[in-house]
Amino acid sequence: MKKIIIIFLLAVLNLSCSDGLYNELNRPSADPEISEPTVISFSEESTIFVEWDDDILADEYILYRALDGSVLNFQEIYRGIECQYRDTNGNDDYIYHYSLAKVRGLRFFDMSSSAMGVVSVTTDDFYEDNNSKEKASILNQGILITANLYGYQDSFGNYLTDEDWYRISVPAGCTANVIVRQLYPLASDGADNHFKSYQEGQPSVPVVDGRDINIINGSNVNENYYLEIFPNPTKYFPNPDPGGTIVSYQIFIDRVY
Q1: Three-state secondary structure call for residue 172
Q2: What average pLDDT is seen over the chain?
Q3: When you count CB atoms within 10 A of the terminal residue's CB, does the N or C end of the chain come out lower?
Q4: What is this structure's pTM?
């Protein structure tokens, strides 16, 4: 009986090794791709998510992190086969850089270029992800939207910024007056706040707090128009030092006439 069990175990082991050898021999011989990870900030309080594509040419992944500064001192924070990492060990309002390396067999491949992220107790507002025209939030008369915009720059002049797009339906031959009020830090009424606005076909302009942004429909049919609100670099980054801020605001249609 013991002899039968031993023979069975050896057969299973031999089959497993054969499968592994077959898979290895049939795996492409090219080196793993050196690719930058995707870094997601502000989706969860005091957390940065890092993810990357699965690479069949890699056996393991090594994720490195460095605190922002003129010299990046990368340290290993993860090693394994998963394609994502949830980093909860950062300090709030600090900027971090993440780089990914890959291992195949006994070979270690170069680290990728780094991607930046920010740890924050503030999270994305309810209307995210409205960072593009295609994902614009609908702004109707009688609706008050409260949102926020973040903007950060690292020691190398790279930016991590938010933008909010809104879709506004304007009746034929009418004008919609849109107003943006900065909530925190509080802005003076009638003064430029921390934002700029953009309408298609027009240059971007600073947003004057509490003053009308006119959306004009000169046609004889109802039209949808798109308005982008984004950080004004001169307000968010008044000097070349690394850092940034998160500014909350309200946007609404004051009147249509």
Answers
A1: coil
A2: 90
A3: N
A4: 0.83
